[in-house]
Task: inverse folding
């Protein structure tokens, strides 16, 4: 798996151990979501993990993984890969957390149950996959970790990250 960073740009040696330590101090909800965007010929998947400390904020981590764009031409392929990556992270997280904290893991699915949206065709299957994997699941409009945090990273908007160069995420025509 690719390397992890905090949103502020700090490198993280071992995401799972760091979150396990945080959770030992105070049990916290761990939200996991993934979003993807085309970047040139590649599909860049950005996964985010947000650990909340109610009333006191929280901390967010992310990583990016790129795959050949030709492998993810359909919405179904993209959505199922997003959920696969999130479930993989959640599964790895559950291996390092004490069993009583597994219920604190929430996977966010970037699909909308509203039939006005094309992702609704896959909503039930994606939510069922997460639930069948043993994790709590939220979907749009409540899937902020995938729809906002991971989307922000996938779109290259986290300018604090020194690894991102402007040419990797060119601005759209007509915007300054």
Result:
């Amino acid at each position: 798996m690719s390397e992890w960073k905090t949103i502020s740009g700090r490198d993280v040696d071992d995401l799972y151990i760091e979150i396990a330590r945080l959770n030992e101090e105070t049990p916290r909800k761990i939200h996991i979501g993934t979003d993807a965007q085309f970047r040139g010929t590649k599909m860049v998947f950005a996964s985010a993990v947000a650990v909340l400390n109610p009333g006191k904020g929280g901390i967010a981590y992310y990583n990016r993984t790129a795959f050949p764009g030709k492998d993810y031409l359909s919405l179904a392929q993209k959505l199922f890969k997003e959920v696969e990556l999130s479930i993989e992270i959640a599964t790895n997280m559950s291996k390092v957390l004490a069993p009583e904290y597994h219920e604190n893991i929430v996977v966010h699915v970037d699909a909308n149950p509203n039939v006005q949206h094309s992702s609704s065709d896959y909503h039930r299957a994606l939510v069922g996959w997460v639930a069948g994997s043993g994790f709590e699941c939220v979907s749009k409009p409540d899937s902020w970790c995938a729809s906002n945090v991971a989307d922000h990273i996938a779109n290259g908007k986290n300018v604090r990250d020194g690894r991102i160069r402007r040419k990797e995420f060119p601005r759209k025509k007509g915007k300054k």
Observations:
- The first helix runs from residue 15 to 25.
- Helices lie at 15-25, 75-96, 120-132, 144-154.
